[in-house]
Amino acid sequence: MAFYLCIDCGGSKTIAVIADADGATLSRARGGPSNFAYLGLIPFVAVVQETVQAALQALPPALDAPRTLPPSAAIFAAVWMGVSGVDSPAAIAAITPPLTSLFGVQPLVANDTHLLAAPLKLYPDVSSAIGAVAGTGGIVVSFREVPAGAVDAVGLQELGRVGGWGWILGDEGGGFHVGREAVRQILADADRASVHRPLDAPPGPAPPHGLAQRICARYGVQDVFELLTVVHLPDPDTDIGADGAEPHYAQMAREKRLSSLAPLVFAAAFEDRDPVALRVLRATSGALADQICVLLRPAQPAPDAGAGAGSWMHTGWMDVRPPTPAAAADGPAPRTVPADASILCLGGSLAGVEAYRALVLEELFRRGHVFARVEVIVDAAEVGARALASAAKGR
Predict the structure, then answer these.
(1) What is the CA 63 to chain-centroid distance, rounded?
(2) Strands 128-134, 373-376: parallel, antiparallel or unpaired by DSSP?
(3) Tens of pLDDT, residues 87-118
(4) 121 vs 278 pLDDT, higher one
(5) If we measure between CA atoms, which residue out of 226, 227, 233 comes closest to residue 250?
(6) DSSP H helical segments within the chain, as ranges?
(7) Closest by alpha carbon to 293, among 332, 349, 348, 347?
(8) For residue 375, what is the enclosing H or E element?
(9) Phi, psi values for residue 346, rounded to 5°
(10) Which helix (DSSP H) or strand (DSSP E) does residue 87 occupy?
(11) Exposure pattern of 222-242 as b/e (b: 16+ CB <10 Å)?
């Protein structure tokens, strides 16, 4: 029996799905984080092996198949891996040989956004796809459909990509961006308020309220400017254990101190209707829309759609502006795609929040972009396994 294996290797978890020739899921397993750039080769392969072996062991007992890796006999007809932290041919070349030895067949390895575009192989009414991740981090990649085997085993040709630079350099639209923008907006409000205080007012900013109060309480501080200490405190030294005297955030990686604030911002925005939190999410969702627009053919803004909601801290991304008359005369960039013939495939925990997703789509509509289809990919590995089996049948 031919098995089709798809593995979604992410920064927080690894999901492996095994499907039959019809694309039906036979088993699945979940493992630990497997961002290749963060782990390195040997730990990465170890996580993949552990996760796939768990999926093999979860196969129905009636199926005669090896349950360990490397397999004692050929078991996989094809393997497709979407790996976060794989962003160059050199990285793919580094991990492909040990994975080939592990699976007994050479896997198709690509960035994890490729799995998001799998629905492009399942819908005949669209010819291109944009996969957008808004989880802890963020990245946007565009694809067009080609015959299976022309470019890869699935038939997805990558056209362009935006972002995916990691938390230090980017991650626009994701959880880290939300946390960082929240702290920036809170500090910016305090800066503006400083010049409006009476000359005889006591020193220090006013007590925090709303979103600022939520975040200050999260870290046990009273003054919004104490958040600067929280944010900039160095990463914990893993060689020295906690002595109990340090604040709890001292044992958190700096990136997590900000990305972990996203649920607080979402609660303040969508439950309390806090204006600062809403402003934050309009800025971050607008940045994600900026990135998507880089990959789209220019469109006329929607009439009477109103001005985009930005902030003095938000200047957009990559200077996304309507084309000049001269540029418009030259036609669209050859690797851009039209939204009305494309499917927007959204993945990541933030993209799964309907209200946040609506902000992104609202901003895209304001700029004249309406996708033929919009799909939230809850289980990229399962969709990928189904697409892999479909491509093998030539559908």
Answers:
(1) 35
(2) unpaired
(3) 788 999 999 999 999 999 999 998 888 888 88
(4) 278
(5) 233
(6) 36-39, 41-57, 89-103, 113-116, 175-194, 211-219, 227-232, 254-259, 262-270, 275-294, 325-329, 354-366, 380-392
(7) 332
(8) strand 373-376
(9) -105, 135
(10) none
(11) eebeebeebbeeeebeeeeee
141 strand-pairing partners: 131, 161
Nearest to 112, CA basis, from 255, 14, 5:
14
Angle between helices 211-219 and 262-270 (to 10 degrees): 150
Residues 241-269 have pLDDT tens digits of 555 667 888 888 888 899 999 999 999 99
Token look-up 């782990």 returns 39
The reported pLDDT for the residue numbered 168 is: 82
Dump pLDDT digits (tens) for 164-173. 888 888 788 9
206 to each of 79, 198, 219, 290, how far by Cα in Å? 57, 12, 18, 35
Token look-up 């944010």 returns 231
Task: Give DSSP secondary structure letters for 203-241.
Answer: SSPPPP-THHHHHHHHHT-SSGGGHHHHHHSPPP-TTS-
* 8 Å CB contact between 178 and 280: yes
Q: Distance between CA atoms of 44 and 35, rounded to whole angstroms?
A: 7
In tens, the pLDDT along 50-62 reads 999 999 999 998 8
At a CB cut-off of 8 Å and minimum separation 6, what does 92 contact?
Answer: 86, 109, 110
Position 337 pLDDT exceeds 90: yes
| Residue 14, phi then psi, degrees to nearest 5 | -125, 130
Q: Which residues contact 196 (CB under 8 A, 6 or more apart)?
A: none
pLDDT at 313 over 50: no
Structure-derived torsion over alpha carbons of residues 333, 337, 340, 341, reported in degrees to the nearest 10:
130
